Amino acid sequence: MAFLNIFVGNNQKTMRPLILAAAALAIAILPAQARKAPKTQPFTHETVAIPAVTPGIISVETDGTRLILQVDARGTVRTVHYGAPVGDPGQFLCFRSSGDHAFGAPTAYPTAGGDFNGQEALHVEYPDGSQNTELYYVSHEKSEKDGVETTTIHLRDYVTSLEADLVFEAFRQEDVILIHSVIRNKGREPVRLRNFASASLNLAGDSFLLTHFHGSWAGEMQMEQTTLTHGVKLIENRRGAQVTLESNPSFMLSVNSPFSETDGEVVAGALAWSGNFRISFELDQSGKLNIVSGISPFASAYPLGAGESFTTPEMIYTWSAEGAGAASRNLHRWARREGVYGGGKPTPTLLNSWEGAYFNFTTETLLGMIDDAASMGLEMFVLDDGWFAMDYPRNDDRAGLGDWEVNTNKIPEGIDYVASYAHSKGLRFGIWIEPEMVNPESNLARNHPDWIVQSPGREIYEQRHQWILDLSNPAVQDFVFGVFDRTVALSPRIDYIKWDCNRRIMSFGSPYLGKDQDRFYVEYVQGFYNVCRRIREKYPDIIVQCCSSGGSRIDYGALRYFNEVWPSDNTDAISRARIQWSQSLIYPACIMASHVSAVPNHQSGNVTPLKFRFDIASGGRLGMELQPKTLSAEEKALADRCISSYKTYRDLVFTGDLYRIASPYSGDFYALMYVSKDKRRAVLFTYCLRYQLRVHASHIFRLQGLEPGLNYRVSEQNVDKSCWWGDGKSFSGAFLAGGGFNPSFSQSLTSAVFLLEAE
Ligand code: GLA
User: Fold this and answer.
1) Are residues 298 and 394 both part of a single domain?
2) What distance in angstroms lies between residue 552's CA and the mean position of ligand 1's atoms?
3) 708 by DSSP, 3-state: which?
4) Best of 502, 548, 552, 566 to mutate for ligand 1, by most ligand atoms within 8 A of CB?
5) Is 120 a pocket residue for ligand 1 (Cβ < 6 Å)?
6) pLDDT (mean) for 387-398
7) Is 404 within a domain?
8) Which residues touch 462 (CB under 8 Å, ≥6 apart)?
9) Using omega within 30 degrees of 0 as the cis cutoff, is the peptide bond preceding 110 cis?
């Protein structure tokens, strides 16, 4: 039997007389009334028995990785290894991982209390005000289905009856492990969760270089690197909605030496949650790194009633010894299998009305755009913002959000007329909504002031002249679902919805939750997911884009319901090079909408060649976002060529393995390629970003992912002015990887796309 002392700890014998004396003094100086009616239960000095367990090893295994946990005789569970397969995992039994009380090493799910003082995953406040939790092993079980092994470890606190399950889902072929926890209040009274992270991962290594992603509007997903030093580095966001604008809940970590695309030990992680998040990296006194990831507990001391449980979102991990490229490919494979709605099924090329028309259009404008889109070979037309609201017409961003009826002054014939026209031209049809939002200038704001996120008596701040609806309220969830439902009902020919979310939460608070405001941030996101679930049950086949002022809602929580994202409102091809590169570290190309827009670019003012814009956009889901009437006949012909060749290799972009060849962050040349599973086909994108000195350059790109023994015939696509002299010739995979491939760029912002097909 091991014993846990609830209160006095190791020094109880020496400390007890002092404590008793202090208590007596305190009682002596308390006023009589307070002595008669103590507000809290007195502490007890009894200890609670913790059953001893047989030490053991729990190994969570994918084909190429192991996550190994050790259970010691006291029942403490600790992560002892995450990385390469290690032969017999049982040999970890003799690892001295257990913290002694002087050191207090993190457990597999570190809690506030006990001997631990670091960043905790779980912090519970109990009815008596105490805040210590110590979780010990009870049992574990494993099950396997469709190549996914699930390991569940049951833990409990023997003093409070709090229980936690740690759940590990190992995707064997993808080398991805999902971790989440389930926290259960088995006591008879409610408790409060002051921290309730999804996962804690303890890593050993000599040094850790963290790659993470910061951003701003029109500049999302910018890669940043920092060496972790002792102490805590936090990636956190408290915006409530639009949470991935400033930072993405994901990272890559080099263990020991900085990774490259092809070498080095890498741990990559991403949290599946579309709300406030916190990922802490704590390098402790022993040089070990502990990563705690989950929902941010900011303003969320979440109440858990007796008998209730809380399931945390999944933290998605992968490990590779072959650099960032292999880690990304693992995540992408998992995402296409399970992390992204639609699983990477190719979606149509499209023309979006936004940058071409903004709010200024009539039916005639739209039909004209549809004609032009059809003539260039595009496959869908998407009507963006501005089509709705009568009393407060949506003619700019100051009015109308919330009033989702068609503006018949702009489109008297209705949406079905436009959608049918698109279909008659062989195009599909999509439409924009922003159902979580309301302009103060709207009927909705007047009719339902209690649906708006707000704090009593305080100004409700506007952002983009709008307020945000309180999705923690089931009535608001019904309304938001209804907006989607009613919009789809406008025409049986709606194939695509662009779901936008253009502001964050400020003056946080829910009129619906009353005094229970601690639930707000969590239940806002759960409300959003409830709506998404209902939508997917009713509309499994509609393609839905997740947009949030560009890339402010890019996370694997939302992606379970959305086919694609709008990575940024910045459509400038130069800016997109970096945004798309960074996004590809964690997320697959099948979700990445990328549009060719007009020059000078509306966000950056940059002027880039049309071909360069096409070649950048073709690395994701290709679209256009301009008024086609502004294009010359020559430009339309180039567009036509680029779109038709994209259709021949689009399957590679959506389902192929990504190999990043040259980074736009570190040089003047940028290149990436997508290779088919059987390695018989690949598409290579090469770009010259050099804008000074001797721009005319022939750069050697060493290709990856090809079969050395196969011969590939190389054909240049999207040809404007050929960049290469070997069109139609064949080269072995070995030559292309070792000798390389060298297109010649005649000036800045030239680019070339090549299709490689095995003979
Ligand atoms: C956001 C989106 C844009 C566009 C506008 C419409 O900014 O990111 O793509 O849809 O809203 O108002």
Assistant:
1) no
2) 12
3) coil
4) 502
5) no
6) 98
7) yes
8) 440
9) no
